[in-house]
Amino acid sequence: MIWVTGDKHGQLSAMELPDYKKIKKNDTLLICGDFGFIWDHSRAETKTLKALNKRKYTIAFVDGCHENFELLESYPIVEFHGGKARQIMPNIFQLMRGEVYEIEGKKILAFGGGSVENTTGDLDQNWENVEPTKAQIDNAVQHIKQVEGAVDIIISHEPPYSILGCMDINKADGTTIHDVLEQIRTHCKFKKWYFGKFHVDKEIPPYYTAVFDGLIPIQTK
């Protein structure tokens, strides 16, 4: 089984809600950005990651607006379900922008990231890494072509430009990431698109879902 949820911001309590008991051994939990458990390699943070690593399922997240990008980029890149991912712990992975994964028969396109305008915190951090690069966009284009322009699921932190109005966001406030995701929306067929960012659980029929605390099951058989 595959499950989808939203921003966690490093709060272990957000992953200890009763619904999480439904996630079984060998399931996969997809997190739509702002995972937030990787900031400083502190003793407390390491303890939390080890606690998450004891879970019997796989945790896979796209990056959001509020991450320590320099630390994320220090983790090794490995093969993961047919795509590339950064391995944080034996069962925790960062899904990389533009990669396509096949998990339990579902093709999943990942494209994390956001915009510099939405970042906060230590100004010394390399915040420009939140923005999509040409190489990452090209990577998405290449993989979309490889799957003949069709996937089952798209996972992102931000929504595509055309969905901003559904989230009560003025389209004039759209940034590069929204334009990039809009191009993906235009050129890639998909059945469902899940995104985080707005800290709300909201269905936008027929294809889009904003997710935060919700834990959404995806039937794979």
From TrEMBL:
Coiled coil: none annotated. InterPro entries: Calcineurin-like_PHP (IPR004843), Metallo-depent_PP-like (IPR029052). Residues 2-167 form the Calcineurin-like phosphoesterase domain. Pfam families: Metallophos (PF00149). Signal peptide: none annotated. This is Metallophosphoesterase. It comes from Clostridium facile.
